[in-house]
Design brief:
This protein is α+β, with helices and mostly antiparallel strands and 374 residues long. The chain has two domains: 200 residues, Tetratricopeptide repeat domain (Serine Threonine Protein Phosphatase 5, Tetratricopeptide repeat, Alpha Horseshoe), CATH 1.25.40; 124 residues, Nuclear Transport Factor 2, Chain: A (Roll), CATH 3.10.450. The chain has 17 helices and six strands. The chain has a six-stranded mixed sheet with strand order 2-1-6-5-4-3. β1 and β2 form a beta hairpin. The two termini are 25 Å apart. The N terminus is likely disordered.
Amino acid sequence: MQRSIYFCLAILAVLAFQPIQAQQVYLPVSSESETAVKLYQEATDARYNYNWDQMWERFNKAIEEDPDFFMAYFRAAMVNWGWQNKQYFDENYSKAMACKGELNKTEKICRQILMALKENPDAGLCSFGKQLAEAAPEVLEAYFWQGGLCHSAGDLEAAIAAYEKAESLNPELWGIQGLLGSAYKDANQMDKAEVAFDKNIQQYPDHPGPYFEKGNLLMDTGKYAEAEKMFRKSFQLAEGFRPAQRRAELMAAMQVAARETENFFRRDYDAWAACYTKNRVVYFAYTDKNNTWQYRGWEELSKGVKEMFRENPDPIEGEVTRSNFLFGVSDNVVRVTYDQTVGDNTTMELRVLVKVDGEYQITMMNAIGNSSYE
């Protein structure tokens, strides 16, 4: 299962916490430097606040205080694994393996996690999460790791069970509702996911994470305008958090893409045409086993679609769902691909949209009716 952006943010860095005893939250560490441990926990808090510069600053200072601090290297390695940054994962892996201090029981399990990932970056790690929970049953962080490692391995039932255990130990711990929501969402339990994300927002209205998670849910359920608001709120609260900004732009663009499809199916030419740039480089193409349409330039496209609507005036019925988004955002341009399903028909869709006078317009549309080839 593909690791979602925020899932990596939430799990691999252990989130901030309410004022309870630290030992109840964090796995025990073998460092004898109280200063290093404090800096290490501050790095965790910075990660939660999406303050990447401060996070690395605190990690580096913790290591300066204790160059043999295994868990600092472990966490740095896991952050980079979550970001799929092999170079820095390898660097921190090597430093963690070189630590000479005696490791405690949970640290030894963490060491095994690194070894498994070094051998295979896509290794299933759910069993290690279970070991951590069994080794430290009273420590909240153990269940976060169990849930996160099982989630990344695709064992959603085990992930949900671990998160629910953490919730039972401290239902107000920051992040638990967001983590539960993410697992529920991936398990297609959308109603439960929405309840969990809303609780997270209510408990922590000034933090960016809950809004980002709710935005992901709304994106997956096709509520693009609401999702855009969530992502913009997330970015407003943490301006260094570029994924929220990029997804807000994607959602603004997807509202136009969705209107274009809706009005094409309704055979509403004027509303459909309002979604496009009117120039000679606009491009429209559709192909499946039985049909191919291709138009270059607005004049040709406009004429072709008007003719298409005259020959086939009946609206296309059916609920539209979209999934598997891949996208890129640059200055005033959004490129996005996704799978679109209407009834029994699935198409692979591409849209390129440009921002004109503050509003996105489609400059390229491409769709392949893959179900027609089965």
